[in-house]
Amino acid sequence: MRDRALLLGYLAAVVTATLVHDPRVLGAGAVLVLLSAGRDLPRLLRRLLRATLPVVLAVSLGYVVAARDDLATAGAVLLRLDLRVLLLVGLALRVLPAVNLQRALGFSDSLRFLLVLATSQVLAFGRLFADFRHALDARTPARVGPPTALRHGAATAAWFVRRAEHDAAAMTQALDARGLFLDRD
Amino acid sequence: MIATEQLRHAYGPTVTLAGVDLVLAAGQKVVLLGSNGCGKSTLLKLLAGVIAPSSGRVLYAGRAVHEGLRDKGWRRRFRREVGLLFQNPDAMLFNATVLDEIAFGPRQHGLDSAGDRARDWAGRVGLDAVLDRAPWTLSAGQKQLVCLASLLVLEPRLLLLDEPTSALDPRSTGWLVDFLQDLPQTLLVATHNLSLASELGERCLVVGEDHTIIHDGDVLALRGDHEVLARANLVHTHRHRHRDGEVQHRHYHTHDWD
User: How many CB atoms lie within 10 A of CB B47?
Assistant: First the structure.
């Protein structure tokens, strides 16, 4: 019950945060989320900045360049956008680790099934991705240059696309073999 | 050459190695046995310094690996002298051609004639015909050989091989076993294939399901030790029905070791 309430509270907060446009309210919300962490505040702040800073900086910079003729409007839009990102990511980092999603979604077998599928894929792909990084690390005496990093990144991405495609085909065949498509033409 | 002291590793709450002490002397060929998930791959990655221990340490030539890797010169030497073959060869392959893949290491280390070295090692493992092919288009067995050649081309002192025969057909497996026996390098070969253990090395480490080393000794001495083999989940028993259809009994299956 607690997990379901937390999840529903989180979803309600996300919807509310997307409906609010006043930067003061968004800022106050972000501060509230941070303060609610108590002694974990420095850790939460560190994780929040690590998760958001690259994207926030890249998007803000791009937006400023694109809207350079009207920087005042761009500033207001960016402030709202960046505060909302901080609030939403802060909420996710603060609330979701405390939710047992299996229990929270206990009311629906289908949702729990989807959760298991997603979790297993994330874990499996996470381990595989770590292997790719470790393999490059094991073969190089120093940090690789941008061309090698790019080549490695592209090859890794291509492998994951092929793997996802292969897995999707295998899963479809498995579903077909178990009769999922029997009622389709 | 390389040693561990109370090496422990965990992924979050899941313990993968629980206090491992081992010493590998130069020139030894050692087999690392254990069932799936017991921590063999984790141990090899820790020895190669690509993941950090939760506690304890790995010592290479007398120096703690994770401290040494912060030193540029030492890291260069360590990466040249210690090669790790990953269980999934795809994790290692990212260059445009097989030749580039094998020459990658020598180029990274600034060695002369990287291309010639790569061609030489490709020939030794039987890859001359596919030098211009993209590695990802090869069969699983060929990929494994490309990975092996890309390590051997640096002529490392220590080779850590994670299930090197897993993708190979029986003929290629036989060839690889002979090939590994003839290498002068110190070898630590992880496998869950008990029948290959005596072919791959003279010393055997067994990682149990409790993620500790439960046997360290002669490979042949292990074959009669059903208790250790069963604890490591390396043997199975099943019901036998004899021809008369009446006598049923269970015994251990350890394959043919002779």
Answer: 25
Q: pLDDT band at A143, cuts 50/70/90?
A: confident
> Which of chain A's residues have a Cβ under 8 Å away from the Cβ of B88?
128, 131
A142–B76 CB contact, under 8 Å? yes
| Residues in A touching B92 (Cβ below 8 Å) | 135, 139
Residues of chain A numbered 113-142 and touching chain B (CB < 8 Å)? 128, 131-132, 134-142
Per run of 10 residues, the mean pLDDT along chain B (length 258 residues) is: 94 89 93 89 93 94 92 91 92 92 92 93 94 92 93 94 88 89 93 82 90 89 81 78 66 53
Could you state, in order of their start, the residue ranges of all structural domains in chain B? Answer: 2-253
Q: Enter the ipTM.
A: 0.76
Q: B79 and A158: CB-CB below 8 Å?
A: no
| pLDDT for A171 | 73
Q: Is A164 on the interface with B (CB under 8 A)?
A: no
Of A135, A144, A162, the CB nearest to B91: A135
pLDDT tens track for A89-121: 999 999 998 899 888 988 887 788 778 778 877
Q: Is the dihedral of CA B140, B80, B66, B20 positive or negative?
A: positive
Query: Which option is the CATH number for B2-253: 1.20.120.1460, 3.40.50.720, 3.30.70.920, 3.40.50.300?
Result: 3.40.50.300
Contacts with A157 from chain B: Cβ below 8 Å: none
Q: Are B65 and B57 in contact (CB under 8 A)?
A: yes
pLDDT of residue B233: 85
